[in-house]
Prior knowledge:
Blueprint: H1 31-40, H2 42-62, E1 67-75, H3 81-96, H4 109-117, H5 120-130, H6 133-137, E2 139-142, E3 149-151, E4 156-157, E5 162-163, H7 177-187, E6 188-192, E7 199-205, H8 208-247, H9 251-273, E8 279-283, H10 296-336
Antiparallel strand pairs: 1-7, 1-8, 2-3, 4-5, 6-7
Helix pairs in contact: 2-10, 3-9, 4-8, 5-7, 8-9
Amino acid sequence: MSDKNDTPMFRQAPQPGDLVPYGYDDDEIDLKELFLVLWAGRWIIAGVTALGGAIAVVVALSLPNIYTSSALLAPAESSGGGMSELMKQYGGLASLAGVSLPGGGDSSKAALAMELMKSRAFLGEFIERHDILPELMAAESWDETTGEVRFDDDLYDVESGTWVRDVDPPKQSKPSLQEAHEAFIEILGVSEEKDTGFVTVSVEHLSPMIAQQWVTWLVDDINQAVRDQDVAEANRSIDYLKEQVATTALAELQSVFFELIQSQTETVMLAQVRPEYVFKTIDPAVVPEEKSKPKRALICVLGALLSGMLGVLVVLVRHYALTREEVGSRQGEVGTV
């Protein structure tokens, strides 16, 4: 009768080079063997980690500083409420008389302005109006001492003011407004807080002064754009209502038209005297003193970490590839015998 202590508590994993017996579960992981394999390849892991970490440091140091300037805005009170109420009140009466009144504009001006700010038409006019295409598409670095932006000589010639970039057709040397729009969207941030309704507009750029200036221009221009649209619409409504007054003989309906004309006239007047027409500035944009990115320390840590994981993978793949090759060769020798 054999002693129970003769039975091993744990089955020993086959050593490298040993023949694997039939029925052995090769899915089991021997932590000791794994540790020994990693320890044997420690110099490979250290070398790959050091190389990857050095590359991450070089990349992190080569990236230019990016500054973000933002402004906090609050939607201004709509001036079209009186017109909307009058349209609801007298719309039925006008329809009975065979007159179709213009729409009251129930959509939110703030939501409209947010989408308009990101549109191709608005940003295209914005870029052309302020002549900022070189700063947007060809800026390379920013001189902290002089505050000047340096441009990429391969893209833009500052002395002659011409574009010299080499691109394939249908693109041209001077970037199109479509390219400029795509580039601006990447640095523009427009977000709304659902709880308070406040809107944040932000711009990223190599120059903190340019980032602050562009945010200020964006807020001013979007207020002007929405104001011009509303004034033009109100003037068209006034002209339309005056035509209806001249063509109708009903005194009561004429009174309705006069009230609507008065409401639209008030809209035009308020738009002219209120510069912050759609957005009121709660916290204006300032020149940022600290960069927003890149996070150089994070880049270096992630680079070293990923490189270390790559080194471990290389060691394991190399070890198990050699092991399978040795096992295959030994099985081949046994088969020939």
